[in-house]
Amino acid sequence: MQKRGRYSKAFKAEAVRLLEIGEKPASELAMELGIKRTLLYRWRDQLKQKGAGAFDGPGRPVKDQQSELTRLRQELKIVTEERDILKKAAAYFAKDLK
Description:
The chain has helices at residues 9-21, 26-33, 37-50, 68-97. The chain is an all-alpha fold. The protein folds into two domains: 1-60, Winged helix-like DNA-binding domain superfamily/Winged helix DNA-binding domain (Arc Repressor Mutant, subunit A); 61-98.
């Protein structure tokens, strides 16, 4: 899994400025900057909505700060998958015993 990149406010603002100039297509600009095209459009929309207040926050909270409910849901999903795999394995090996 690829780690999420963190970009400075200045980088985001410059990327949006280059997008607005329109000298290059968004896909080419995104490739040169090393980001996804959809991220470029998301930054543009944030800048239009919030103006100068855009890109101020730290973004998504780190895993340590996630709510207890979210953490438990993730854990439940993993445990459920493990249980299903074990059920299938038990059925497969029980079939061989007959």
